[in-house]
Amino acid sequence: MATPPISIGHSGFHVFDMKKMVDFYTTVYGFHVTDQGFIEGRGEVTFMCADPRDHHQFVLYEGRTSTADMVHHNHVSFRVDSLDRLRKIHAELLTYPGVTRIGPICHGNAWSVYCYDPEENRTEVFLDTPWYVAQPCGVPLDLSLNDDEIMRFTEDLIKDDPTKKPFSEWRAAFAEKLGI
Predict the structure, then answer these.
(1) CATH number assigned to the domain covering 74-180
(2) Fewer CB under 10 Å: which end of the chain, C or N?
């Protein structure tokens, strides 16, 4: 019997300042608060989502104690549906107070913008490209290019990669490998 598919349902981490972090994730990424509450002995919790199929995709918990120089979470990534949305978030990140290390990257299989939020949690917002290429792969991406120019830039980047194939082919092969 094949193992059923599994996908990342949500991510969560502890924060120092709940109000500031809820503002950041609702303003920049467009999340909506679906629930807020209090967990006895642990503190305030906020559930957020941007997809009507889910109750929450992201959870913030009050009570962070680790300092910014300690590794407490690698990153959380958020999928968007267009380069326009990726550009809009990138522009918002550039002006949002306390956001650092903002970096647009082309991975060949995705266009991404990484940053550190106001409490130094690493985040990524991304959009799939039409292709699969083996990872890691990453070069700086100029989001001032138009969609066609970004597409050509990506095609040039991966044209000689022996692992390059349409993402649809890779997904079909992976689904077969999973037995689904």
Answers:
(1) 3.10.180
(2) N
| CATH 2.120.10.30, applies to 10-65 | no
Torsion of CA 161, 171, 104, 10, to 10 degrees: -150
- Helix-strand-coil percent breakdown of the chain, rounded to 5? 25, 30, 45
Alpha-carbon distance of 51 to 55, in angstroms, equals 8
User: What's the predicted TM-score (pTM) here?
Assistant: 0.78
**Tens digits of per-residue pLDDT, 138-179?**
999 999 999 999 999 999 999 999 999 999 998 888 878 767
Alpha-carbon torsion 49, 55, 59, 62, what sign? positive
| Total count of residues recorded for the chain | 180
> CA-to-CA distance for 131 and 151, rounded, in angstroms?
11
Amino acid identity for residue 25 in this structure:
Y
Local confidence band at 83 (pLDDT 50, 70, 90 cut-offs): very high
Contacts of 135 (CB under 8 A, 6+ apart): 107, 108, 109
Give the residue carrying structure tokens 């083996």: 134
φ, ψ (nearest 5 deg) of residue 106: -105, 120
Q: Which single residue is written with the structure tokens 């106001």?
A: 118
